[in-house]
Each structure stands twice: as C-alpha cells, then as structure tokens.
Amino acid sequence: xxxxxxxxxxxxxxxxxxxxxxxxxxxxxxxxxxxxxxxxxxxxxxxxxxxxxxxxxxxxxxxxxxxxxxxxxxxxxxxxxxxxxxxxxxxxxxxxxxxxxxxxxxxxxxxxxxxxxxxxxxxxxxxxxxxxxxxxxxxxxxxxxxxxxxxxxxxxxxxxxxxxxxxxxxxxxxxxxxxxxxxxxxxxxxxxxxxxxxxxxxxxxxxxxxxxxxxxxxxxxxxxxxxxxxxxxxxxxxxxxxxxxxx
Length: 247
Description:
- There is one protein chain.
- It is elongated and about 70 Å long.
- It has helices at residues 3-15, 22-28, 30-40, 43-49, 54-57, 65-78, 84-90, 92-102, 105-111, 130-143, 149-155, 157-167, 170-176, 194-206, 213-219, 221-231, 234-246.
- The longest helix has 14 residues, at 65-78.
- The protein has 17 helices and no strands.
- It folds into 4 domains: 3-57, no CATH class; 65-112, no CATH class; 130-184, no CATH class; 194-246.
C-alpha cells in the first residue's frame, strides 16, 4: 500500500467518523495499521501526516471506564444530545474512550443504566400535558419508584425532560405534585447503597421473580439503576448476590 493511499484511508476513516485510536484500527483494519507503521514508523506519525490532531483524538489516561460512565450520566441529566455522531464531534476524547472501554458508544450508554428507548429526542423535549405529568409523578411516589432526578432521567429521559420543561425544574415539578423534594435528595440518591441493592435482588430471587435486567428495569427501575451505579454492570451485581447466597 502506497503512502498516499494510507493517508487517504486515514482521512476517509476520519470523515466517516470511524475510530482512529490504535487499538480500534488494529481490530477493524489491521492491513491499514501494518502498512502505516511500515511506511511512517508509528501509527501516530501516520496520523500526523494525514493532518489528524493526535492529542485531541486519544483518550486521556485518566479517562477510565468509571469516568466515562460518570461523564455520560452528566450529559444525560444535563440535557445534551446523546447521539454518537454528535458526541464524536463534541468530545472525541470521551467518544474514543467509550469505544475503547465498552466496544461502542451505544454499549457505553447501556452500561450507565440508561434506558435507550427514551434516551434520544431531537430538538425540544416531547411535550406532555401538565396534569398527566403530575399524575405520573404522584403515581411514581405512591408506588415507591425513583423520584431522584438522575434516576428518573436514566429511566425515562423523555418524561423527565418534559416535566422539567413544563415546570421549570424537576424540583418544582415535585412541589407541584405535592411532594417534598427533600425526601428525594440524599446526596443525590435516596438511601441506595451496595448492600440495599443486593438485599432487594435477593428478595426478588426468594419471591421467585426474574433477575433478568430487562424484567427488573420494567418492574423496579430504581433498583436497576442503582445496580448499575454501584456495581458498574448488571452481571457484577448478580454475581454479588450469588456470592452472598453461597456464604
């Protein structure tokens, strides 16, 4: 492969918004990677010749898997566009780190505990009738479902965004529903910790209920979100339940 062709392919990957970190290219196009190293000495040198800003492209060393999840959750609760295309342009460092740690941007979103069914909205959030919004909030309160902003946003971002837009803030929406916001503000979480997650999952197990992530999310979204938050992923949470059961 000629030097000019190598540069063209690197530029093509950049234009098509494909990954350009060395690990990703070694996996997706080993021929290009080998040719680039043969002609330019290193992959980074080849990128430089292709006009790619290497510093902006590489995930920073401190961008760990946990940091990636934390930043994505912040984007979610702050109302940012969560599409892969937008975030590749907005923060390539985070995007590449997400792909490096989780395999793809979508898998990174899933790892945060985000319900992808309600994660994306174009333009303004979907509008809901205020009365229906208040009824939904009251119903969540009565059934013991999560009412912490972060949890609701991860579970149903469209609903959370609509409530925030309709009432000016999530706090005001709770007040309008006759609910004291202080009840749902304990360091950003309501009483959840690792042990409570394990206890709740074990209780489901003892009651013969499913421990599949999709089933738990549908029946008890707050528990599912807490499991992701405190254990990183669903498999780790279930493993802890099994370990405690064996003791």
